[in-house]
Automatic annotation (TrEMBL):
Superkingdom assignment: Bacteria
SUPFAM superfamilies named among the record's database cross-references: Carbamate kinase-like
Gene name in the database record: pyrH
The name this protein goes by in its record: Uridylate kinase
Enzyme Commission (EC) number: 2.7.4.22
Domain spans labelled Aspartate/glutamate/uridylate kinase: 4-213
Record lineage: Bacteria, Pseudomonadati, Bacteroidota, Flavobacteriia, Flavobacteriales
Regulation: Inhibited by UTP.
Function per UniProt: Catalyzes the reversible phosphorylation of UMP to UDP.
Length: 235
């Protein structure tokens, strides 16, 4: 396998499936199946999950809500998604721990780096909920931060498009996909991979990001096996 320890970032919206809101149990079960395939190969898997399928702080703020209050709601939404994903992973037979950046001791473990790494070494999937624990950040930033902390080899950003394109492929049919691109070129060309805070943190720490289509069965396993799936952003 090409990677030993990965950080998989899944957006909250990915969990909606074809719904407008919330969690689609079938999509969740599909993801758990994909994750099991790589865990069975001995790959250590950590996951950061978003909350956009339930609540986003900016959306609350645009309706007059206090931004920090809204961000707290968004972070709690990621914990809800984390619990759902943990449940699906355990149904698929994967031992899983949920660690949160905001302490909810009756529900999940607090984030403790050494403990997280120990779980991974023992073959448990670790889901990080609650984002970074701070308002004004995103779960992309949480994904990069946790990936660096646990010394992951790579961030795999699972999306519904199969990589980074010269333009939005859903709007421009002449758009072409990059197999590889440098951090600098992403910034120079103004391409959207992650928000700037998250992207810069990854660049500064030389942590590669692979954007790939998580909804195509088998893609995650192929990626881990070294196949050229998606787009790799590297130094
Ligand atoms: N959030 C936050 N701090 C963090 C991570 C998330 O305040 O470190 C809040 C923020 O309101 C955000 C929401 O949680 O809009 C959901 O996270 P995100 O938008 O990153 O989820 P995704 O787009 O990946 O579903």
């Amino acid at each position: 396998m090409k990677y030993n320890r990965i950080l998989l970032k899944l957006s909250g919206e990915a969990l909606m499936g074809d719904r407008q809101y919330g969690i689609d149990p079938e999509r969740l079960a599909d993801y758990a199946k994909e994750i099991k395939q790589v865990v069975d190969q001995g790959v250590q898997v950590a996951i950061v999950i978003g909350g956009g399928n339930i609540f986003r702080g900016v959306a609350g703020a645009s309706n007059g809500m206090d931004r920090v209050q809204g961000d707290h709601m968004g972070m709690l939404a990621t914990v809800i998604n984390g619990l759902a994903l943990q449940s699906a992973c355990e149904d698929a037979g994967i031992p899983t721990r949920l660690q949160t950046a905001i302490q909810i001791n009756e529900v999940a473990e607090p984030f403790i780096r050494r403990k997280a790494m120990r779980h991974l070494e023992k073959g448990r999937v670790v889901i990080f909920g609650g984002g970074t624990g701070n308002p004004y950040f995103t779960t992309d930033s949480a994904a990069v931060l946790r990936a660096i902390e646990i010394e992951a080899d790579v961030i795999l950003k699972g999306t519904r498009v199969d990589g980074i394109y010269t333009a939005d492929p859903e709007k421009d049919s002449s758009a072409t996909k990059f197999d590889f691109i440098s951090f600098e070129d992403v910034l120079r060309k103004g391409l959207k991979v992650m928000d700037t805070t998250a992207f810069t943190l990854s660049q500064e720490n030389e942590l590669p990001i692979i954007v790939f289509d998580m909804n195509t069965p088998g893609n995650l396993l192929k990626l881990i096996g070294g196949e050229a799936i998606g787009t790799k952003v590297q130094i």
